[in-house]
Amino acid sequence: MQKKVLALLREAEDNYISGEEIAARLGVSRTAVWKHIRALKAAGYEIESHARRGYMLLEAPDLLLPQELQPTLRTQVIGKNMVHYGEIPSSNNEAKKLALDGAPDGTVVVAEAQGAGKGRLSRGWYSPARKGIWFSVVLRPAFLPQDAPKCTLMAAVAVVRAMKDMGFPVGIKWPNDVLDNKGRKLVGILTELSAEMERINFVVIGTGINVNLWPEDFPDDIKDIATSLGMLRGGKVDRVELFARVLEALDDLYLSVEKKGFDDVLDEWRRYSVTLGQEVNVIGVKETFAGTATDIDADGALLIDTPEGRRRVLAGDVSIRPRRK
Amino acid sequence: MQKKVLALLREAEDNYISGEEIAARLGVSRTAVWKHIRALKAAGYEIESHARRGYMLLEAPDLLLPQELQPTLRTQVIGKNMVHYGEIPSSNNEAKKLALDGAPDGTVVVAEAQGAGKGRLSRGWYSPARKGIWFSVVLRPAFLPQDAPKCTLMAAVAVVRAMKDMGFPVGIKWPNDVLDNKGRKLVGILTELSAEMERINFVVIGTGINVNLWPEDFPDDIKDIATSLGMLRGGKVDRVELFARVLEALDDLYLSVEKKGFDDVLDEWRRYSVTLGQEVNVIGVKETFAGTATDIDADGALLIDTPEGRRRVLAGDVSIRPRRK
To answer: What pTM, to 2 d.p., does this model score?
Structure first.
């Protein structure tokens, strides 16, 4: 009902709509209307109240609320079910809990802030309130667990496609770091899997996008290696618009993968890659080596040509070596 | 303390030991000794009490209690932490909960009965009280998630090694069905994985072993395709002995895998296999086909030679076609 009240306020655009009219059109009491208006205000909507004329929506809050996103979201699976939090410790942990309780394919968990955001390999992810998009998606794909690592490439492709559509110069460093054209990190992705040996129970893809962080917002240890879209643009970026574009790109890619497999995702990944063709250092699970990154294979592994032959990297940190002048 | 009282009773073998002596040696009151004796009796131990002579252990209960197993268990990791239940819905689900709460590498969850035992692909597993060994092991290996499917081969190898050591004629049908020499099923294994893309959080290996089920114990739908070790032997089999041997074999294999990888496990699997060299029908995820099972590869996938070439099977049901006379 709150969504319906909001829809009528939006429909009225820059005009007042009376409480009486809202009550009549929705078939509820005027007291009920008043309560919903109060709840919308509490959620951050700026609503002008006038004793005779009624209500007018002045400004939607800068929050990633389902009622802001869902009405115009063009997706078939991703975000049809969406849960919003002011602050939670970790959207991935929350999504895993919901998945264990049966949350459907495409469920999105989004938080304005994370108290203990998780990055890869037990690293943290700095997630201050309303400065970024900190969210996790629950997927229940039909493909085999062996294909799950490619979800993380798919997520990076979705984010980059959305950002490029909005004009940002970004690329992907293998496997899923989204960087600006100076190599500074904009996005972190942490994919987790729950599976039997031949069936996926669920995949949770957690994504953190630095949107409106300014230089003074970054902790000292990451301020030289991280940046934000707002800093790239030199001004505030609309989080709701970006979030919707990312979810739509992810929906498109996910439906394609379920139908045709990962080939198209891998091709799009190659187009966005800043790693391929570069001299790289690989810090692997057991050893460190250098070579030329030539391609990714059908499993999403990075192929590196070294003096001792071609090597295949499934896990580890890859750094791009600066070109000699 | 209860374990220490039990140890003294065992030490006395077929002689009485007085409550006074137990109290003195353990530094507790005679009332405390009496309470521990009462608890042991409640757990199923048959203990003779004599007013003047004291206590004598007549028979240990036919239960898979940690205090029965652990004192003689020769393992380094598996079963150092062990949790025993009379009945739980599913040992795998319980093990996953404990793993999420931080249960250490090698934790064993064992139940005398499962109310809703789980098999592969949402099938059930019939787990009547004290008739089998229904248990799950939590592993936290250092290898990559891509290697996790081989855990299910490792578990089958551990079970078969233990059974062969006890003289049973058993073999493995790919990937992890343990069968008698007439092709009847003795064991079910369900392996579940929780992982990030490049790190395993935990693996839970659930194993159900039909030990002392008799023909009348089996439900109609499985009585022609399943059997038990007791039926093979024509008499009761010691569950504690078998369980200890399985855990010891698993410990040995797991330590070897962590040190040297899966090659030795795959070789032992090949020796126990009843699938390799056979004509098989494969009911795969998307299609059905027939061919000759020739080998498993380094990923544990089954390799099938068909008229159209070699095929690689990662998931699905494989049935062995009877040889023509």
So the answer is: 0.80
